[in-house]
Amino acid sequence: MKDREPIHSTDTITGWLSHYDCLKRWQDRAEKAAVGGTDDILSLMDGVDFALAFFIWAHSLREWLINDKAINQDKLDSILRKHDTWSMCRDLANRSRHFDLKHRPRDKNWSLQFSFEPLPEQMPGIQKYRWIIFYDGECFGVFQLIRDIRVMWDEVLAETGLADTIKHRLGTFSP
After folding, report:
1. Is this model's pTM higher than 0.90 or not?
2. Which residue has the higher pLDDT, 59 or 132?
């Protein structure tokens, strides 16, 4: 990425790879907050904050890949269009960053809410609180959507051959 030169920063030193590592850390934070099982509203809101941060980082990985010249923009966009989760990721990230979207989102009026299960102990595997997104007339579990978007990126990187770069990099920090 030409704007990064000659300044070296921990978050940019390996370009899109650093960004991808950060995306994975935001996923971990969001999922840990989700399974905390707490009744504390601040802890519940941490899950929301981390989830929204994940969507922003997941969406901006596209720009990092293009600016680092890891892949051609047209090729990347063609691959991303094959994934339904891409437009969701884009819309969730962009409305999280911007109040009024100027492009043509599929759903700029999506809604993030939490549902409450009054008797979770009677249903194994069900959490007391569950964050959900209403998007394009459908309901999605926030943390399942995060996993789906991460899987999408893993598939995109595999299809472009960039997954091998992640596996074979040496001498870089990768938590």
Report:
1. no
2. 59
